[in-house]
Each structure stands twice: as structure tokens, then as C-alpha cells.
Amino acid sequence: MSDDTTPEVTRLLRALEHGGQDVLDRLIPLVYRELRKLAHASMQGQGNHHTLQTTALVHEVYMRLLDQRSATVADRNQFFAIAAMTMRRVLVDQARKRLTQKRGGQSECLPLNDEIPDGWTPSQCDRMVLLDEGLEELAKIAPRQSQVVELRFFGDRNVTEVAEILKVSRKTVERDWQFARAWLASRLQI
């Protein structure tokens, strides 16, 4: 997103709390390219196994954001954090649906490499569901660490961006990332 649209995005995000669909309709064109980038990163490496295309994922996120438009969004970073969480929900819902249709299958290991999603394809539904369940469990004991994984994995944000979004230092994000990876690895036995 160009810097010249940032003030307008911020204004629209603040108006979103009281505005209707028209506010969101003006906002989406300004953030659409970045939402597509986010969706593409979330679906990277899926091969032919995925059930959603990037555009369909962005549109599904848009529909879910319409339902959540009463939520207060302070700034652009918070908006993209919410979008990442929403993409996670959409992808997990799709994975669960596909697993229900598939009726079985072996779970595979889910590597959590430093540069997620290196080597992992979100379309492998059992792994997506396992990761989601692990993140839900982690969120109960370490909410910020769960957010770090969500923002890095589903939000395609780097350490600096996550630190800015969560309003913590880079070192804190790095420690949270290391802890979350180890915790998830022990829980998910990966």
C-alpha cells in the first residue's frame, strides 16, 4: 500500500465502527492489493489441493469483515491483524470441511520453520486443523505468543511488523516466536 493512501485508510478504519457497508466498500479498494498479498502468502505452496483461490479467499474475508464491522479498528496494522485472523478462520473452516468430506487420512508432521510457511502447504487439511487447535490451546496460556504465530504465519508479517502491531520490542517477538514454536512442536509432536 502506498504511503499516500495510509491517512485515508486510517480515516476509513476509524469510521468503520459507525459506518455502514459504504465505508467498507471505500476501504477495500485501498487495501485490496495487500489483502491479496496476504491471501497469497497464506495459501503459498498449496498446489492443486486447495479449495479456495486467492481472490475467493479475499472475498470470503471481505464478507466476514462485513459481519464484524462494528469492531473498533484503531489503525492499518490492527486491520491487517484482524484480516490475518479472519484468513486463518476461513482456511481452517475449509480444511475442516475438506476433512469431513475426505473421511480419514493420516496426519503428517507440521514443520514450523523460521520462515513460515517454508515447506508446509496449508491445504494439507489435517495439519491446518492441528495447528489451529494448537494455537487455540496456546492462546489460553500465552495469548501474545499465539498472536505472534498467527501474524507471522497467516498474516505474512515479519518480526518488525509484528512488534509494531503488538506494540512490543523485536526481541520480545523473537522470544515469543521461539517459545511458541517450541510449545507447538511439543504439543503437536512435530
Produce a short descriptive summary.
It is built from 8 helices and no strands. The protein is mostly helical.
Radius of gyration: 17 Å
Identify low-pLDDT runs.
45-49, 105-123
Q: Which percent range describes the beta-strand content?
A: under 5%
| Averaged pLDDT | 75
* Residues in helix, %: 55-70%
Number of strands: 0
Distance between the termini: 36 Å
Return the domain count: 1
Structural class per helix/strand content?
mainly alpha
Query: How many separate helices?
Result: 8
Overall 3D form: globular
H and E order: HHHHHHHH
Largest sheet: none
Structural summary, described in words:
The chain has 190 residues and is mainly α. The protein is built from eight helices and no strands. Helix 2 (21-43) crosses helix 3, helix 3 (54-67) crosses helix 4 (76-102) and helix 5 (125-141) packs antiparallel against helix 6 (143-153). The longest helix has 27 residues, at 76-102. The protein is globular and about 45 Å long. The termini are far apart.
Descriptors for this entry?
mainly alpha, 68% helix, single chain
List the helices and strands and how they pair.
Elements: H1 6-16, H2 21-43, H3 54-67, H4 76-102, H5 125-141, H6 143-153, H7 159-166, H8 170-188
Helix pairs in contact: 1-2, 2-3, 2-4, 3-4, 4-5, 5-6, 5-8, 6-8, 7-8
